[in-house]
Amino acid sequence: MAPSLDPVMPHLNRLLDSRSFPKTICPSEAARALSVTDLQRAGVESWRDLMPAIRELAFGLRDEGVLEILQKGEILPVSQTIQQPSDRFGFGGKSSKTGTCILLLDDGG
User: 72 with 107: CB under 8 angstroms?
Assistant: First the structure.
């Protein structure tokens, strides 16, 4: 069964709202902000267990036009799928131009 992202969303929204473009957050920041109770509500034992679901959420929000995804400073085309980018990425604050959130993909280690 897929984990529930309901406990993640308040933390994710708070972090995104606290950053202005082009500042970013790592999606693990939202996962790590969860309490033990939140993790239990999500149906996972560790924040790491949420990372695939958070990645899926990000790409879903991108597909809905809620956020953009960047890799190496370039907007990732919608044709690029979740399986293609590296495992490391971070969300960003709202763009001053579009008002959309920015997701930054990072190839770095």
Answer: yes
